[in-house]
């Protein structure tokens, strides 16, 4: 069956790495439920050694109710953990959580500046860690707690970011719409007027060149004013 995260992928997007929280995470998150579970079992054992009576019967029903509640609660925690999807694709980092109500959050690779990974002694031994993804402003945009294979996740994310940047660098720069130069001399004709569509396309190409660093902001503004003057 197709997982929910797979249906969020765009055309041409492929999954490079898929993981979730470490198997220890549901145990930590469900520690209260586990405490109630074991306390209920101990209470039932103790009540079995008490002389039957009204008080003993009432406590038995309470213990059974707590036992059932803790089991259902633990199943919910484990199911939520199982349905998690933490993906690294060739375009972004994607996190999907939730059982019936899904929550997805993603970070584009080109906007990621760095990632801070924290691992304690137990985390290094068992292979999990806390990962914070940072933008260019050094602001955390997403957090992954008790992430399984945290080192590999960070390494894969940065490798895909580097590959994406190289792909942008190798991509050919779209040429601007060529405008034939006016002939020199007294018979030179005035600069040809452009249509609104031609100017829009030219401005889009100029903005792309500016974003790639092929031209400076000053060159962009000068050419922009020149194009707008041809309307």
List keywords for this structure.
231 residues; alpha+beta; PH-domain like; four-stranded antiparallel sheet; three-stranded antiparallel sheet; 7 helices; 20% strand; elongated
Commentary on this structure:
With 231 residues, the protein is an alpha+beta fold. It folds into 3 domains: 4-21 and 84-170, PH-domain like, CATH 2.30.29; 29-81; 196-228, no CATH class. 47% of the residues lie in helices and 20% in strands. It is built from 7 helices and 7 strands. The protein has helices at residues 25-29, 31-48, 54-82, 121-126, 150-170, 196-212, 217-228, and strands spanning 15-19, 85-89, 92-97, 103-108, 112-118, 128-135, 140-148. The protein has a 4-stranded antiparallel beta sheet with strand order 1-2-3-4. Strands 5-6-7 form a 3-stranded antiparallel beta sheet. Strand 3 (92-97) and strand 4 form a beta hairpin. Helix 2 packs antiparallel against helix 3 (54-82) and helix 6 (196-212) runs antiparallel to helix 7 (217-228). The radius of gyration is 30 Å and the shape is elongated. The model has no long low-confidence stretch (mean pLDDT 84).
Unreliable stretches: none
Q: Any idea what the CATH superfamily of the largest domain is called?
A: Pleckstrin-homology domain (PH domain)/Phosphotyrosine-binding domain (PTB)
Query: What is the number of helical segments per DSSP (H or I, 4+ residues)?
Result: 7
Note the overall shape.
elongated
Residue-averaged pLDDT, rounded? Answer: 84
Number of strands: 7
Please report the distance between the alpha carbons of the first and last residues: 56 Å
Radius of gyration, whole Å: 30 Å
The CATH architecture of the largest domain can be named as: Roll
What's the structural domain tally? 3
* Proportion of residues in β-strands: 15-25%
H and E string = EHHHEEEEHEEHHH
Which CATH first-tier class of the largest domain would you pick? Mainly Beta
Spatial order of the strands in the main sheet? 1-2-3-4
Q: Which fold name corresponds to the CATH topology of the largest domain?
A: PH-domain like
């Amino acid at each position: 069956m197709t997982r929910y995260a797979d249906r969020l992928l765009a055309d041409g997007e492929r999954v490079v790495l898929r993981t979730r929280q470490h198997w220890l995470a549901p145990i930590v998150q469900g520690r209260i439920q586990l405490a109630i579970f074991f306390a209920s079992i101990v209470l039932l054992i103790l009540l079995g050694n008490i002389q039957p009576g009204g008080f003993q019967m009432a406590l038995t029903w309470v213990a059974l109710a707590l036992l059932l509640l803790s089991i259902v609660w633990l199943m919910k925690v484990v199911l939520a953990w199982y349905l998690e999807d933490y993906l690294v694709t060739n375009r972004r980092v994607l996190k999907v959580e939730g059982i019936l109500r899904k929550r997805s959050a993603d970070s584009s690779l080109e906007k990621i500046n760095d990632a801070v990974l924290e691992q304690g002694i137990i985390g290094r031994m068992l292979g999990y860690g806390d990962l914070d993804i940072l933008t260019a402003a050094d602001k955390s945009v997403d957090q992954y707690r008790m992430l399984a294979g945290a080192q590999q996740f960070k390494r894969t994310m940065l490798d895909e970011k580097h590959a994406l940047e190289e792909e942008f660098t190798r991509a050919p720069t779209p040429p601007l719409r060529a405008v034939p130069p006016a002939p020199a001399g007294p018979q030179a004709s005035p600069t040809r007027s452009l249509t609104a569509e031609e100017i829009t396309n030219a401005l889009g190409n100029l903005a792309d060149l500016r974003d790639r660093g092929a031209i400076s902001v000053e060159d962009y503004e000068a050419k922009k004013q020149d194009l707008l003057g041809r309307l």
